[in-house]
Amino acid sequence: MSRGKAGVFSLWLEQRPFWCWKTSWVENFLPCNSYIDSYDPSTGEVYCRVPDSGKEEVEAAVEAARAAFPGWSARSPQERSQVLHRLADLLEQSLEELAQAESKDQGKTITLARTMDIPRSVQNFRFFASSILHHTSECTQMDHVGCLHYTVRAPVGIAGLISPWNLPLYLLTWKIAPAIAAGNTVIAKPSELTSVTAWMMCKLLEKAGVPPGVVNIVFGTGPRVGEALVSHPEVPLISFTGSQPTAERITQLSAPHCKRLSLELGGKNPAIIFEDANLEECIPTTVRSSFANQACPLGFGLLGEICLCTSRIFVQKSIYSEFLKRFLEATRLWKVGIPSDPSASMGALISKAHLEKVRSYIKKARAEGAQILCGEGVDKLSLPPRNQGGYFMLPTVITDIKDESCCMKEEIFGPVTCVVPFDSEEEVIKRANSVKYGLAATVWSSNVGRIHRVAKKLQSGLVWTNCWLIRELNLPFGGMKSSGVGREGAKDSYEFFTEVKTITIKH
Ligand SMILES: NC(=O)C1=CN([C@@H]2O[C@H](COP(=O)(O)OP(=O)(O)OC[C@H]3O[C@@H](n4cnc5c(N)ncnc54)[C@H](O)[C@@H]3O)[C@@H](O)[C@H]2O)C=CC1
Ligand SMILES: N/C(=C\C=C\C(=O)O)C(=O)O
């Protein structure tokens, strides 16, 4: 890791013979001495190495971000917006290259990276480039005491941004874009498992005219560089997406500095399917919502590696058998294949450790007497010889499982879903709410009154009814209970990344 001309840090990915992206811009950066092996999930082989940065790199990044802050924060929203638009255009021009890289690094299908991850990363910059132009402040009057009050907002300073491996560029840009649009400078840390597209974006930052020091990217592990960033006294706010245990650690480290935190964490998301649901629409959407993020049917991707994925399907008893039969038929159609295969609907999981973790849940379910109806341990995977060491697994459906089972309580974050029957509306709401998480729920019914009633009673930051993962970026995104703290979106991100001041004028 090193300081570069553009104020971008720790940017050295060692090239392996089959690593094909151009690296001429790397000359701006000094090499680092310590690396982490990065694996291709589809083969299980090391294919590049990521810098293993720590305190020293964070210190250098803070210095650059501090120096850049006065100039960047003094620019008008219009000027910052133009830079974000240029960056979006450049990312879009590199869409294919970025999609190939994301697919190779993460294991998801190329189709998914091409149609979801990279387009959404482009959209993140365009969206915040536009929304930053439309915020207004508050004003109230107190005529009886001759006072006018109004608010002003200012960027907070240096924002620490930490993102996970499931949607690498998509989630990193979802944080960088609003932070810099609001006038902050940032230090961003992508997951050590998926650093490549962040690294590729660095050269585009410079080209887009992002001034040196405005966006600093540090690469490395959570315990080393992540904690150095979170603990740094000059980084007053942290936006984090990832697991709940890591969020706890970040909260502890932030507490002595009273840092502002935005935490987007996991879920144990229910789908509630009433007997009057339109199964023609519900079944394909629920297959997708269960197994998304290595998969991409209908040009819309999803392998259970999205925090919004369904992992508990409650089906009203009267339609349970029919639903289950059709759901299994639809699941079995999903082809697991190498990420570059355009006919594959699912690629590989992120890592060996993660594959083992996901498999361990299925073992536990079996030991508890649950039925595994398809997938892991039931059907056979067919893969080319070169990919036998990859982290693949078939979409797996579990039934006859108790609500108390760990498979029904804990976030598995893999292509595994549990299907259970229910009798009444009241019962299913109670059962859906009986977990520590509260991120996303789906409700399927043609009774509008019921939809409103149930949606209001679910402890969930997001409720999709008769659909799934239709995103309106303007509106609040985030979870209740252990699924997070705070919300992201046009207004919410703006409020998080700015400090508000109330001014009173006596006249
Ligand atoms: N959005 C979500 O809900 C996500 C949930 N997960 C869940 O978390 C489980 C574990 O996955 P991980 O990759 O280990 O997630 P994680 O929460 O440990 O990693 C997310 C990010 O946090 C960083 N990080 C880790 N420890 C840190 C620390 N002490 N201080 C600062 N930063 C730190 C990581 O380097 C990465 O950039 C998954 O199996 C899944 O259940 C994982 C990714 C995303
Ligand atoms: N935070 C996650 C997904 C967000 C999706 C979106 O903003 O559309 C996650 O899977 O971790």
Would you kindly provide a written description of the structure presented here, covering whatever features stand out?
The chain has 15 helices and 20 strands. By secondary structure, the chain is α/β, with parallel strands linked by helices. The N and C termini lie far apart (56 Å). The strands form five sheets. The chain has a seven-stranded mixed β-sheet, with helices on both faces. It has a six-stranded mixed β-sheet with strand order 7-6-5-8-9-19, with helices on both faces. Strands 3-4-20 form a three-stranded antiparallel β-sheet. The protein has helices at 55-74, 77-93, 95-106, 110-131, 168-181, 196-208, 222-231, 244-254, 279-291, 320-332, 352-367, 406-409, 425-432, 448-457, 490-496; strands spanning 35-40, 45-51, 139-142, 147-155, 158-162, 185-189, 215-217, 237-241, 260-264, 269-273, 310-316, 371-374, 396-399, 416-422, 437-438, 440-444, 462-465, 480-481, 484-485, 498-506. Helix 6 (196-208) links the parallel strand 6 (185-189) and strand 7.
Number of strands: 20
Mean pLDDT: 92
Rg (C-alpha, Å)? 23 Å
Tally of individual helices: 15
Helix proportion range: 25-40%
Q: Major sheet, described briefly?
A: 7 strands, mixed
Instruction: Provide the low-confidence segments as ranges.
Output: 1-30, 294-303
Q: What is the strand content?
A: 15-25%
The first-to-last residue Cα distance is 56 Å
Secondary structure class reads: alpha/beta
Summary of the model, kept short:
By secondary structure, the protein is an alpha/beta fold.
